Structure formats: structure tokens, C-alpha cells
């Protein structure tokens, strides 16, 4: 068996090189050096997915290089994964190999963990899950002390729950989040805390009302809402909207509304192009938006959304793809200047860079 380890010795140098590349890329728009938010060098990923390689009547965790999906690399330790993932990996694999029912036609295992010590294990199969599987999985769940979820084609078998509860200390309080299996969550917990803390600091004197697009489960919106009179957030995923509603209640936030709209739909709504039934309880004219927060997918903001966002006095733009953020800056820089600039090292030891901008109207 191989061990998946990373060389931490040059982590600082790698991060500095990322910062230099990012600063050079944004040099046309700002002289600022990015504020750096380093990741823990190991055990930073809170979720992991492993293929299961079956050979000689035994199951093994496997990973593949991109484009080489017939050449598995068998692993038994994953040092970039959280300590809890590494603790659970051998226990789950041992139980799978002790049970023909759990092992047969198993092709993937997923681990979702939290900084606060919760976990969910999902086992994915090329077979229908029956009562025998359920009995074996419940026995494993009892042994591990964490919930097991079974999946196969058109089947999802929830034995206890399909989510974890994260608790993030930020500032002078702790925020609680329900994170549902299959829904997007930030993979690097400490970087998630850093991003929220940075965004809160950037908003602390903004006043007025907040709009957030692409809000997910309320990861940013809930901690930021206290800095504003009112907050409105949009998200297209029904599962994420449901989680956000629960998270609002769990955190006692009373000035925040979530609506299930895409950014394109919200642009049409605020421009009064057409009405939306999902907005019937929201009077957009009541809001005095001082700040808009966007954390879009890798494709960045579409042209209409970018133009709409440019109307706001302050724009907080979190990006997982600086290339598309730079494309949007061609538009946004006509009306706004960069007041703050950050690099969040979500994925150490890779070329991936996440950036944060606070843009203020000129």
C-alpha cells in the first residue's frame, strides 16, 4: 500500500510564489500586495472521495492521475485530509473487507468531516442496496459512532442523517452550519474561517443593507448579516436554500431572507423585467443595498450580473478563479477601485488560487 503524503518543507515558498503571480496578474488594477491567508500545511481538507479498487477479494482505497483512470494508486493514508478522515479510513476499510455484503460492488467511499469533529461516510455501489446491506451498514455505523449513507443508481439510503453539523468560531461567537451531503461546502475549514473573517472585517463599517448572490448554505451571509440593517441572499440550489433557512434559525439571525433565484433571475427581478413568484414576500424597494457579496462558480459573473453588481457602492468579490475575476474587473474597474485584496490558499501544493477583492465606488 502507498501513503499519500505531501512535502511541507517548501510550503512557505510555494505560497509566496502564488502571491507574486497573483500580484502581477492584478497589477493593472492595483498596487496592493495581497493579504495572505495560508492553509494548515497538512490535514486541511474536510472532505475526500476515494475510488475503491477491488482485487483478490479485497477492497482498497485508490486515486488516479487525471486522464489515467485505469492505473490506480492504492493508498492507506491521506495526509491532506483531516485527522478525522485519516482516523476513519482504516476502520471503514477493515469493516468493508470483513463483510462480503459491504464489499461486493462497492466502487467509491466519501468522507465529509468538520472542524468541530462531526463526520458522515457515504458508500457508493454498483448494486441495489437491500435489507442485508442495511443491517451490516447499521452495525458499522454503531461501531464507528458516525452516520453511514448508502448510494446506488437511483437509490439513497439514509440510516440516520445525510448531513454534518459544523461549528465555526469566528470573532466573538461560534456559528453553526448544517452541511448536507452532495451540496457545496468549503473544503478547507481553516481557510473558510479566514475568508469569513476577512469579509466581516471588510464590511464592519459599511452600514445599509447587504445583498449576496450564490449564498450556498449561508456560509458568508449569516456571519455578515449583523453588520447590516437587513440582508437578502439568493441561491439556486434547493438543498442549499433549505440548509440556509435552517442555519438562519440555528444562529438566531432575524434580519436575513433567502430566496431561491439564480443571479440572472435576480438581475431580472431588480430591474423589474419580470416578476417572480418566489419573491412575492420580498419588497426589493425596501432595501438600501450598500454592499453586494458575490462568490460565483469558476465561470465568474455573466455580463448582465456583472453590470448589475457595478451599481453597488461596495462589492465583495470572492473568486475561485482569478482568470474570470480579472475578466469581470475589466467592467468593474470602470466604476470601482480595489480597496482590499486577499489570497486564500484553499488548495496548497497546487496552482489553484482563491482571491478576495473589496471594490469601492470611485
TrEMBL record:
S-adenosyl-L-methionine binds at residues 186, 214, 219, 235, 295. This is tRNA/tmRNA (uracil-C(5))-methyltransferase. SUPFAM superfamilies: S-adenosyl-L-methionine-dependent methyltransferases (SSF53335). Dual-specificity methyltransferase that catalyzes the formation of 5-methyluridine at position 54 (m5U54) in all tRNAs, and that of position 341 (m5U341) in tmRNA (transfer-mRNA). HAMAP family: RNA_methyltr_TrmA (MF_01011). It comes from Microbulbifer halophilus. One of its GO terms (biological process) is methylation. It catalyses: uridine(54) in tRNA + S-adenosyl-L-methionine = 5-methyluridine(54) in tRNA + S-adenosyl-L-homocysteine + H(+); uridine(341) in tmRNA + S-adenosyl-L-methionine = 5-methyluridine(341) in tmRNA + S-adenosyl-L-homocysteine + H(+). GO terms for molecular function: tRNA (uracil(54)-C5)-methyltransferase activity, S-adenosyl methionine-dependent. It is an enzyme of class 2 (transferase). Signal peptide: none annotated. Gene3D superfamilies: 2.40.50.1070, Vaccinia Virus protein VP39.
Amino acid at each position: 500500500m502507498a501513503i499519500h503524503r505531501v512535502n511541507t518543507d517548501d510550503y512557505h515558498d510555494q505560497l509566496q510564489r502564488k502571491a507574486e503571480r497573483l500580484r502581477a496578474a492584478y497589477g493593472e488594477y492595483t498596487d496592493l500586495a495581497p493579504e495572505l491567508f495560508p492553509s494548515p500545511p497538512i490535514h486541511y481538507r474536510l472532505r475526500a472521495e476515494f475510488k475503491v479498487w477491488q482485487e483478490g477479494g479485497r477492497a482498497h482505497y485508490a486515486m488516479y492521475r487525471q486522464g489515467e483512470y485505469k492505473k490506480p494508486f492504492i493508498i492507506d493514508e491521506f495526509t491532506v485530509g483531516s485527522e478525522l478522515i485519516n482516523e476513519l479510513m482504516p476502520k471503514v476499510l477493515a469493516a468493508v473487507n470483513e463483510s462480503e455484503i459491504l464489499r461486493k460492488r462497492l466502487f467509491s467511499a466519501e468522507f465529509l468531516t468538520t472542524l468541530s469533529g462531526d463526520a458522515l461516510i457515504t458508500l457508493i455501489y454498483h448494486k441495489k442496496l437491500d435489507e442485508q446491506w442495511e443491517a451490516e451498514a447499521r452495525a458499522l455505523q454503531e461501531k464507528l459512532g458516525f452516520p453511514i449513507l448508502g448510494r446506488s443508481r437511483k437509490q439513497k439510503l439514509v440510516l440516520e442523517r445525510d448531513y454534518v453539523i459544523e461549528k465555526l468560531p469566528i470573532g466573538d461567537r461560534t456559528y453553526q452550519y448544517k452541511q448536507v451531503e452532495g451540496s457545496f461546502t468549503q473544503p478547507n475549514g481553516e481557510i473558510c474561517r479566514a475568508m469569513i473573517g476577512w469579509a466581516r472585517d471588510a464590511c464592519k463599517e459599511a452600514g445599509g443593507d447587504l445583498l449576496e448572490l450564490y449564498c450556498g448554505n449561508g456560509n458568508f451571509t449569516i456571519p455578515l448579516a449583523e453588520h447590516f440593517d437587513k440582508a437578502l441572499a439568493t441561491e439556486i440550489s434547493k438543498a442549499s436554500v433549505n440548509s440556509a433557512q435552517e442555519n438562519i434559525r440555528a444562529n438566531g439571525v432575524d434580519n436575513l431572507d433567502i430566496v431561491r433565484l439564480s443571479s440572472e433571475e435576480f438581475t431580472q427581478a431588480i430591474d423589474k423585467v419580470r416578476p417572480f413568484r418566489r419573491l412575492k414576500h420580498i419588497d426589493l424597494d425596501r432595501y438600501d443595498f450598500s454592499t453586494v457579496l458575490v462568490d460565483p462558480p469558476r465561470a465568474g459573473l455573466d455580463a448582465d450580473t456583472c453590470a448589475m453588481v457595478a451599481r453597488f457602492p461596495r462589492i465583495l468579490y470572492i473568486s475561485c478563479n482569478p482568470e474570470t475575476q480579472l475578466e469581470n474587473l475589466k467592467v468593474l474597474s470602470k466604476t470601482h477601485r480595489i480597496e482590499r485584496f486577499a489570497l486564500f490558499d484553499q488548495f496548497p501544493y497546487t496552482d489553484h488560487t482563491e482571491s478576495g477583492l473589496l471594490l469601492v465606488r470611485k
